[in-house]
């Protein structure tokens, strides 16, 4: 129904407006008695064989929602009814910010892709915490970043603020230094500033009575040399793992007329590169840390390829928008076929 009826209708309108309209629609429908049960019956694959334990956490299934969809933790409970095993919220910053000027979200229909230059638009970490206090069992990842106006030399402080505010309300953390839409942010992926940032957060983590997994989200545009640095940094700082990958700045092979819009590209054009990065990290590190695979998952086959390449879990974003919630069920069903 989604691909035949809803998607053609949604794709007639501005993508950012549709995003907020969809949020309102899901929230309203979820208030109708029985809607949540119907959603779960349609899309949730409830099978113990899908349970996956990674970095000390037990996931009901290995298919999650990537950060950027529910930035402000407004809909994590309702979205979990579509069959996701976990929801990643954010990217959150210490202070709420509008993000970049509109128009800043673009569909590339011919390429089954999206370009966004949102710029960490969010209401701030404190507002999200108030919503997360109501969580009744959804496994949540907290994706954290810095405010646009915070200079890089002070960026660590922004990550610390978000880390402390969210600590009691998320199950794992994601350090986002790989978005292309905050000026100079990707400079924090360089070896020394990244080690300093991760060591600072890890020291805070180790001072807690019970630690939370910290992951690093990386760009697909890193060179092999930079990826080797990432492996060294992860092992040295002893963070829990890596999310591979964020959006790309590459525009290679695109067909859509709006392909030259500035911002990060996600969707099918990223499928192969994301899987290559996962495989490289897994092989070169001798599988020394878990990887969450994200980027261009539009079919169950795409997800299985990332798992085969070395990912322990996968996440959807653009594929969820193009294919709908049936994709989650499809992936989990294919994973179960392998276990039977």
Please describe what this structure looks like:
This protein has 340 residues and is of the alpha/beta class. The protein has one domain: Aldolase class I (TIM Barrel). Helices cover 39% and strands 16% of the residues. It has twelve helices and 13 strands. The strands form three sheets. An eight-stranded parallel beta barrel has the order 3-4-7-8-9-10-12-13, surrounded by five helices. Helix 8 (224-237) links the parallel strand 9 (214-218) and strand 10. Helix 9 (271-284) packs parallel to helix 10 (300-309). The two termini are 29 Å apart. The mean pLDDT is 97. Keywords: Cell membrane, Flavoprotein, FMN, Membrane, Oxidoreductase, Pyrimidine biosynthesis. It catalyses: (S)-dihydroorotate + a quinone = orotate + a quinol.
Characteristic key phrases:
12 helices; 340 residues; three-stranded antiparallel beta sheet; TIM Barrel; eight-stranded parallel β-barrel
Short summary of the structure?
This protein is α/β, with parallel strands linked by helices and 340 residues long. 39% of the residues lie in helices and 16% in strands.
């Amino acid at each position: 129904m989604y691909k035949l009826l809803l998607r053609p209708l949604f794709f007639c309108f501005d993508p950012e407006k549709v995003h907020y309209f969809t949020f309102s629609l899901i929230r309203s429908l979820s208030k109708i008695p029985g809607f949540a049960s119907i959603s779960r019956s349609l899309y949730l694959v409830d099978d113990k064989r899908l349970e996956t334990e990674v970095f000390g956490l037990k996931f009901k299934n290995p298919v999650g929602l990537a950060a950027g969809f529910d930035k402000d933790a407004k809909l994590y409970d309702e979205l979990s009814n579509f069959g996701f095993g976990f929801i990643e919220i954010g990217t959150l910053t210490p202070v709420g910010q509008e993000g970049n000027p509109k128009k800043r979200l673009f569909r590339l229909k011919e390429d089954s892709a999206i370009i966004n230059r949102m710029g960490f638009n969010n209401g701030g970490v404190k507002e999200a915490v108030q919503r997360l206090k109501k969580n009744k069992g959804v496994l949540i990842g907290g994706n954290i970043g810095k405010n646009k106006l915070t200079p890089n030399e002070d960026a660590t402080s922004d990550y610390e603020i978000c880390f402390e505010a969210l600590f009691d309300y998320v199950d794992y953390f994601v350090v986002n230094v790989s978005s292309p839409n905050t000026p100079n942010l990707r400079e924090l992926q360089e070896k020394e500033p990244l080690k300093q940032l991760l060591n600072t957060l890890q020291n805070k983590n180790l001072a807690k009575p019970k630690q939370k997994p910290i992951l690093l989200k990386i760009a697909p545009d890193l060179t092999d040399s930079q990826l080797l640095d990432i492996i060294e940094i992860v092992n040295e700082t002893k963070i829990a793992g890596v999310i591979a990958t964020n959006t790309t700045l590459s525009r290679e092979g695109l067909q859509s007329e709006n392909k030259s819009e500035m911002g990060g590209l996600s969707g099918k054009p990223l499928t192969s590169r994301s899987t290559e990065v996962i495989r490289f990290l897994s092989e070169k590190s001798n599988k020394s840390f878990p990887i969450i695979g994200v980027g261009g998952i539009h079919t169950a086959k795409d997800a299985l390829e990332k798992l085969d390449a070395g990912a322990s879990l996968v996440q959807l974003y653009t594929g969820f928008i193009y294919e709908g919630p049936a994709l989650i069920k499809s992936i989990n069903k294919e994973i179960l076929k392998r276990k039977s």
